[in-house]
Design brief:
The longest helix is centred in the middle third of the chain and has 17 residues, at 92-108. The protein has 6 helices and 6 strands; from the N terminus they run αββααβααββαβ. Helix content is 32%, strand content 17%. The strands form 2 sheets. Strands 1-3-6-4 form a 4-stranded antiparallel beta sheet, with helices on one face. The chain has a two-stranded antiparallel sheet with strand order 2-5.
Length: 178
């Protein structure tokens, strides 16, 4: 069991827009979310962080539900024009850095977190998945939340957390299971 006071103190030091403790059993896993990955995402089948490399939705659900706790973290970033996808995606590394800080904090407190974050992994120039090889950096690679079929919108709505803040604000969310 980790020291919740130390966790809260560490989280308070980070530029998080929001964080919340969730029961993994309350998360909605949906084939609809996976369908979007398969049909709308250009990374489908190209990385260990995306389907089908992460396993099917049932396997992903089983993996997440093995954990007793889930910490959701969210950050926001402002861009000049949200329609500029390049500028919007350029805000993602800052969120990933914060996700890694939270991961490291959980590790320091004795947890072995399973981290889901944003989009597909972009650590390696070419993912080993394409060559049929295991992930080169499994301790650093974070599959995306959507890859697991997790529908985060009901959680955000139930908690009264805005997903869209305005024309030029991007929101990013990660889930850390421990």
């Amino acid at each position: 069991m980790i020291d919740q006071k130390k966790l809260e103190a560490g989280l308070a030091q980070l530029p998080l827009y929001v964080y919340a403790h969730l029961d993994p059993k309350t998360l909605e896993f949906s084939q609809r979310i996976r369908y979007i990955c398969q049909h709308d995402c250009p990374m489908y089948g190209k990385t260990w962080a995306c389907p089908p490399g992460v396993g099917n939705v049932e396997e992903c659900e089983e993996k997440c539900r093995r954990y007793d706790n889930c910490l959701m973290i969210g950050t926001v970033a402002e861009v000049a024009d949200i329609a500029d996808i390049t500028a919007s995606l350029a805000t993602r590394p800052a969120h990933e850095a914060i996700t890694n800080q939270v991961r490291d904090l959980l590790r320091e407190l004795g947890a072995q977190p399973y981290v889901l974050s944003t989009e597909s992994c972009a650590i390696c120039q070419r993912c080993a998945y394409l060559d049929g090889l295991p992930c080169r950096l499994p301790g650093k690679m974070h599959p995306c939340v959507e890859s697991h079929g997790i529908n985060l919108l009901p959680v955000l709505e139930e908690m009264g957390i805005a997903f869209q803040y305005g024309e030029n604000i991007i929101s990013w969310f990660s889930l850390l299971f421990y």
